[in-house]
Amino acid sequence: MTRFRWLTAGESHGKGLATIVEGVPAGLTMSEDIIAADLARRQGGYGRGRRQQIEQDRAELLSGVRHGKTMGSPIAMTIVNRDFENQGWRVRMATDPVEEEVERVTLLRPGHADLAGTQKYGFDDVRPILERSSARETAARVAVGAIARALIRTIGITVHSHTLSIGPVHANVPERIDWDAVDASPMRVADRAIEQAMIDEVDRTRDALDTVGGVFEVRASGAPFGLGSHVHWDRKLDGRLAQAIMSINAVKAVEIGEGVAGAGKRGSEVQDIILPASAWERRKWERATNRAGGLEAGMTNGEDIVIRGFLKPISTVPQRMPTADLLTGEEATSFYERSDVAVVPAGGVIGEAMVAIVLADAMLEKFGGDHVDEIYRNFAAFVTTVGPREPRS
Ligand code: EPS
């Protein structure tokens, strides 16, 4: 069975990021420009720090694509870290041994990988841990996600995201979301009336030498019935999607559909009634509501997939905070250079990539083939079987 497999490599201030993507069928339209469009969306958003003015992410395709089409062979990509050329990073992150004395990072930052990582990997320096745990790595995920997005699009699945809240400022979500307008919004918010309040919240937070979190929502439309499976815990698509979203830096909670609100209601209040055929307007098997967020028992149920990522405020706070020193264990004060104030808009774009990747994997499991046309034929044949059916003899 073909799977969508991928790995990323790279440190935040090293030479760059690299990925290999395997399982992409032949015949998919792909180019560096297609990937660049998603990378640019991730770099935007109000509340980002100075680093994003340095980077202009662009993935270079090294293999797997010829004349704008995939060949079915592994796709390798690299993204350069422009910051590598600045302020001594060439020496500090050199892969070869260096003559120069390189200062250790020993002030542990709570909320980051610093403490657990140094204890686990046996370092007397936080640098080797923090470089890899940095959210810089999410640029590589978004590049992979651009390929996954193109793949799932071939069977009609589209993935979008928007900002639901920044700190205490919550958006009212309109019935129909204009996704182009969301992309044009600096907060990536569908509720334009709340946009300025969100910007003000970021500004107030920055002035207070602090950081702010929030919630993004990812929606995938057009998924057919039956991606994932109910038969075993690790095949359940809701679990796979939750893991993918939870793995994004700073995400501390994940919600599918109306999962959180539903926990406080009665069973009769949270059902998505299955409508009779006489009421169907757009397709076979329609529901009165979509509280389940498109997933029941670990399978897609034909409704939109709705999943939310809750981000804690970035752990690197500009104000001096108490901490301890890695080498001495003694009381110390945190050191601050630069950071983002809010990353919720970027989080949504990364969330789209992770959802697209999980759906691409599930799509290959169900409809897998070596060429996109073969996958489409498998998909189209399955779709004809959906609907009320005669008992089988
Ligand atoms: C990050 C810290 C900041 C962010 C970085 C993630 O980088 P720096 O330490 O260089 O200022 O800008 O995010 C990115 C580089 C990116 O491309 O998203 C961290 O500690 O996680």
Broad shape:
globular
For the biggest β-sheet, the strand order reads 9-8-10-14-11
CATH architecture classification:
4-Layer Sandwich
In total, the number of domains comes to 1
Number-wise, the strands total 16
Which secondary-structure class do the elements indicate?
alpha+beta
Which molecules are bound in this entry? ligand EPS
CATH topology: Chorismate synthase, AroC fold
Question: Main β-sheet: number of strands, strand sense, barrel status?
Answer: 5 strands, antiparallel
Low-pLDDT stretches are none
CATH classification, class level? Alpha Beta
Strand content: 15-25%
Number of contiguous helices: 13
CATH-level-4 superfamily name: Chorismate synthase AroC
Mean pLDDT, all residues: 96
Taking the alpha carbons of the first and last residues, their distance comes to: 30 Å
- Helical coverage, percent range: 25-40%
What pattern of helices and strands is seen along the backbone?
A: EEEHHEEEEHHHHEEHHEHEHHEEEEEHH
Radius of gyration computed on alpha carbons: 23 Å
How would you describe this protein?
This protein has helices at 32-43, 51-54, 89-92, 114-121, 127-133, 138-153, 179-184, 192-207, 237-246, 259-262, 267-270, 344-367, 372-383, and strands spanning 5-10, 16-22, 26-29, 59-61, 65-66, 69-71, 75-80, 158-166, 169-170, 214-221, 251-256, 295-296, 299-300, 305-311, 322-324, 331-333. It is α+β, with helices and mostly antiparallel strands and 393 residues long. The protein has a single domain (5-257, 292-383), classed as 4-Layer Sandwich (Chorismate synthase, AroC fold), CATH 3.60.150. Strand 12 and strand 13 form a beta hairpin. The longest helix has 24 residues, at 344-367. The two termini are 30 Å apart. The mean pLDDT is 96. The structure holds ligand EPS. Residues 12, 49, 51, 55, 83, 134-136, 138-139, 249, 316, 338-340 line the site of ligand EPS. Ligand EPS binds at residues 12, 49, 51, 55, 83, 134-136, 138-139, 249, 316, 338-340.
